[in-house]
Amino acid sequence: MAEVKPKTKTKKTRQQDPEGTKRNITEVAMREFVNRGLSGARIDEIAANTNTSKRMIYYYFGDKDRLYLHCLEEAYREIRDGETALKLDHLTPKDALKKLVEYTFEHNNNHPNFVRMVMIENIHHGSFIDRSDIIQKLNATVVNDLEEIYLRGVEEGVFRKGIEAIDLHWHISALCFFNVSNRDTFTKIFEKNLNSDAEQAKLCQQVVAMIMRFVAA
Amino acid sequence: MAEVKPKTKTKKTRQQDPEGTKRNITEVAMREFVNRGLSGARIDEIAANTNTSKRMIYYYFGDKDRLYLHCLEEAYREIRDGETALKLDHLTPKDALKKLVEYTFEHNNNHPNFVRMVMIENIHHGSFIDRSDIIQKLNATVVNDLEEIYLRGVEEGVFRKGIEAIDLHWHISALCFFNVSNRDTFTKIFEKNLNSDAEQAKLCQQVVAMIMRFVAA
Amino acid sequence: MAEVKPKTKTKKTRQQDPEGTKRNITEVAMREFVNRGLSGARIDEIAANTNTSKRMIYYYFGDKDRLYLHCLEEAYREIRDGETALKLDHLTPKDALKKLVEYTFEHNNNHPNFVRMVMIENIHHGSFIDRSDIIQKLNATVVNDLEEIYLRGVEEGVFRKGIEAIDLHWHISALCFFNVSNRDTFTKIFEKNLNSDAEQAKLCQQVVAMIMRFVAA
Amino acid sequence: MAEVKPKTKTKKTRQQDPEGTKRNITEVAMREFVNRGLSGARIDEIAANTNTSKRMIYYYFGDKDRLYLHCLEEAYREIRDGETALKLDHLTPKDALKKLVEYTFEHNNNHPNFVRMVMIENIHHGSFIDRSDIIQKLNATVVNDLEEIYLRGVEEGVFRKGIEAIDLHWHISALCFFNVSNRDTFTKIFEKNLNSDAEQAKLCQQVVAMIMRFVAA
DNA sequence: TATGAATGAGGCTTCATTCAT
DNA sequence: AATGAATGAAGCCTCATTCAT
After folding, report:
1. What is the domain extent for residue A156?
2. Is the CB of D58 within 7 Å of strand E?
3. Fewest CB within a 10 Å sphere: which of A192, C108, D121, D179?
4. Spatial CB neighbours of A121, under 8 Å, sequence gap ≥ 6
């Protein structure tokens, strides 16, 4: 057995690291849920890909539903955490909105976990969001930022009046979300590969155009 | 006695109607898949809500996967069947496009089964569409119709050049699909009820505006 | 392997006999519950001693609690079924009461399953009896029969007045029940073997004397 | 997060009081065993209701069985400790016996823990009593006291001859024990609430009458 | 064409207990 | 003397599916 590699990261050694253990479980569980849905995910499969055992999943998360809820919250947390970085105040309303849309497009693209968890959650009629205290709070700023930009634009006469920020957010979300959520079926049905950088760049540009033209005065 | 049926309440007895039985099973199965997803759906639950027995499901459809595929195909068939009625040739390109978008918006709204089956299919990475000979054929006309309208519009100078019909279809789909697919989570997260007729009318109008402005010369 | 006996009663052959299967499961489950209590009983152990599989237990009884409830009801049914045979009308009140007490003593002795199931039920605060529609009905006649005898005795001047039939039943039950329920601990603590026929006969006679003297005018 | 305790609510911290800790554990464990039986009791549940941690239960008692045995012994100890107070020597045999029965009735009533632990022990065929060195010793005096009274009564001609003290004890125990052990099922089946003071007083009086008449010359 | 009975495999969860500090 | 983290074994239950009639 000369070829056996030395296990640098030995697996089952009682390592006292609760946060690490929980993080590890969350990551693996996210992958499993995202790939197979809530009902399709297997606790055994999750456990097998973990540094720890099935028992620890129950130790830290109680049951499958609560593990799923934790992943859902984590998905929201991840995508919202990234957003804070954007500084749009010093840009013109048009530039700010453009940047926000581009950013949203990219962000959804870079966070398929988020998109897919939300898909799954919708399959389950959003019943887990109801149980979460956290998720609501994470979404406050998004619309506020958007409203600020929009109102500045209206004031400066570059955006037309009469649009609600939340509706604008709805449209941006729709386009950016669909790009990720429905790529598999769209690709297969229309036999058009949307995965290339060029194709994505074009779509992004079109989405920006859609939104800019929609609000244009 | 979960699985033991009370003996007094006999089912609607032995109806010699294969097509009717299959239709009945399909309807019930669709409801179950649409509400719980592929993995979440239960053959027992489907059978219980059927006029016939669990055995017949296997007799007619073989196994759960093939029953699901049948429902997926049925969902595509239903939504595409409805579309043939539209006659847009005699309208101006603008009116035709407007009508097509409005129609698509309404159509998705009226066929949540379709939307949800496609969501589920995307959760499963579109793997069942691959196995279907039927679905591909059903989608040919949609883009063709759209292309015709668009080209007429370009010719007449009312639409700008350089847009591919399939991209246009993508954008229309995105907005109309998202409206149904993500309503649960959007409603709950932003605490805004999108189910009212007024709200839907406004969204539809906005979607039309989005598309019209996007293609406007 | 010359000594292998031919299996006359082959085990796992798909025999379509629902009533037999249910009866078989009930018998085995009763033994297990009676020996180990509700929480101590093991579904796997029950299944292993059955002619059928664990799956069938769930098929017919749903879950462990309902299987337990079924056994509890069965235990009541068994003990009450036997009772109907007694014909006490033509006896003098004294003879009738004597016979009833003797019978109850014997009957509890012959139905340890009943006694032990009731013990277990009391450990669980009688919570399963609450859920049973059947058990209540099974106990109507017992006290009625006793009351009839007692009232005849009072009328004839051989029993004293002022005793309620249900109290009388309580006392008879207490003595006859305890004889079975507490034999293990009583035997061990006082190092007196109560299992012999002679000992049981003496106890029975004493219990009869207790009751007869209690009601004597 | 079923097993993960909230970190803000620290337990009553490190009390250096071994005896107190053991007493605390015993009390909580007794409650749990008495309410759920041996198999139904949960170490986690016991630990959660303790001032200390699960680890300490194992530190002091070794395992669940030994904790249970300790509770069983404790239950016997409690009920026997109370008994020593009775001074019956100076009373007439009748009065002494009456007082002893009344006392036993009350004592069982006041020590449901004892009654229920004995029930549980009988469910387990008295197997733990076998392992206890202590319990045997605790029961010596009871029958001796009773015998003394009985013999005095026979001598004085107020009690009939031929009754063994241990049998007398058996009858007294049966009635007083059953009153506590079977109250739940008896109450529910005969829909007669036996918990009231009046009802208990009546039963006590009847039990006294039963015994007095039984031994009466 | 139809059905109730039956099932192996595998799912989720919980148990008493031990380790590392 | 005390603790939070960790665990193997085993528990209960459910799944899609097939058999016997």
Report:
1. 71-215
2. yes
3. A192
4. A72, A128, A129, B184, B185
